[in-house]
Amino acid sequence: MTALVSSGAFVAGLLGALTGLGGGLVIVPLLTIVFGVDLRYAVGASLVSIIATSSGAAAAYVRAGYTNIRVGMLLEVATTIGALLGAYAFPFISPNIVAVVFAIVLLVTAVQSLRPGVEHVAKSSSALARRLRLASAYPTPHGMQPYEVQNVPAGLGLMLLAGVLSSLLGIGSGVVKVLAMDRAMRLPFKVSTTTSNFMIGVTAAASAGVYLRRGYLNPVLALPVMLGVLAGALVGAHLLSRSPTKVLRPLFAAVMVVLAIEMLYKGLRGGL
Amino acid sequence: MTTPDRPSRWTDHEVEQLVAGLLRIGVLVSAAVAALGGIALLVQHGLERADYHVFTGGPAELRSVAGIVASAARLQSPGVVQLGLVLLIAIPILRVALSLVAFVLQRDRLYIAITSVVLAILLFSLLSSGHP
């Protein structure tokens, strides 16, 4: 059983790293639907795995020099407050509602992952972004490319939602973070992706602390899941340059759709 | 030291590179601690039926940082696994703390305040006493 859980987690980590979509989103459905794990233990194990992969991957992202630490830290105020709200609300929310919300996030992420992104570059920063000194520059082959930042309040609002979803579902909330940083705040893709990774571990830690004290971290489950996802993510990162991302993305999106249908079914029938 | 007008000795990027290196070591150390506890757990208890299908919450000692440290100090295997997980949760908190140090060195008051709020929320989540 433990070996099966661990191999499942390994595949999730591997696919997550190879597709850039993160493995966190499939861990809770995998544990609850396939292995019959209690939702609380599944969310706890998933959050711990997310912390491991995002912290482990930080070195690679930082070397590239794209992370905007001021944007990350500012938005973390919203994601950590959201995560605490979600963690305290969790016991009062029916697992069936969690399952339905999970299905929606899976579907939106699957659709989003197949659509080509359009970069919206802002010509100037908003007054608030200027006061917070959020504009910066990132390295390109042609030298440093400056960029501006807009719509800080919308970004903060979406990040609060990202934090709530992260703690309720045990995920990194990548899809909401992309909405906040790419669409609302108009950050370049490379900056938003790396800054998002910076924030995921911190957001997950905010709810993991509460869940630890509530007994959601089951060592017998969290350990094999965390080690499996971490190993999968590390192998995935090494294979990245040689892998057919174009084939894998639709495959992973299809897995998400199947899991979404299962979660929706469980949620509506009340089987989680 | 630097004045607020001059650029600091440490750029954001240099600080982040140092921090990222520490994070990677932290992940390896905490995963190793948890894995050693896991091996001990396997040796002591063997492949007993996994007990994560029904929620029990586990023993109270393994639900607080102080209890986990005490249990791990007695080399009880579930406590050692849990210690590895706590170390893992501490890594992003350490990252925020190091960012705070960087902003202090840069004398950036606005971001010292913002980072302090994030750090306070994280410490409250992990360390505040009582059953949440």
Describe this structure as you would to a colleague:
The complex is a heterodimer of chains A (272) and B (132). Chain A has a two-stranded antiparallel ribbon. Chain A has 272 residues and is mostly helical. Chain A is globular. Chain A has helices at residues 2-19, 24-34, 39-64, 69-89, 95-114, 127-131, 152-169, 174-184, 189-213, 219-239, 245-269, and strands at 136-140, 143-147. The mean pLDDT of chain A is 88. Chain A is built from eleven helices and two strands; from the N terminus they run H-H-H-H-H-H-E-E-H-H-H-H-H. Chain B has one domain. Chain B has four helices and no strands. The model of chain B is unreliable at 1-6 (pLDDT under 50). Classes of the chains: A mainly alpha (272), B mainly alpha (132). The interface between A and B is large, with 59 and 61 residues.
Question: In percent, how helical is the residue content of chain B?
Answer: 55-70%
- The gyration radius over C-alpha positions of chain B equals 19 Å
Question: What summary fits the major beta sheet of chain A?
Answer: 2 strands, antiparallel
How many structural domains in the coordinates of chain A?
1
Poorly predicted sequence stretches spanning 5 or more consecutive residues of chain B: 1-6
Shape of chain B: elongated
Task: Report on the biggest sheet of chain B.
Answer: none
* Biggest chain-to-chain interface with counts: A-B, 59 and 61 residues
What is the string of helix and strand elements of chain A?
Answer: HHHHHHEEHHHHH
Give the strand content of chain B.
under 5%
- Work out the number of β strands of chain B: 0
Count of individual beta strands of chain A: 2
Number of domains of chain B: 1
Task: Pick out the low-confidence regions of chain A.
Answer: none
SS-derived structural category of chain B = mainly alpha
Please state the average pLDDT score of chain B: 84
The helix/strand class of chain A is: mainly alpha
Tally of DSSP helical segments of chain A: 11
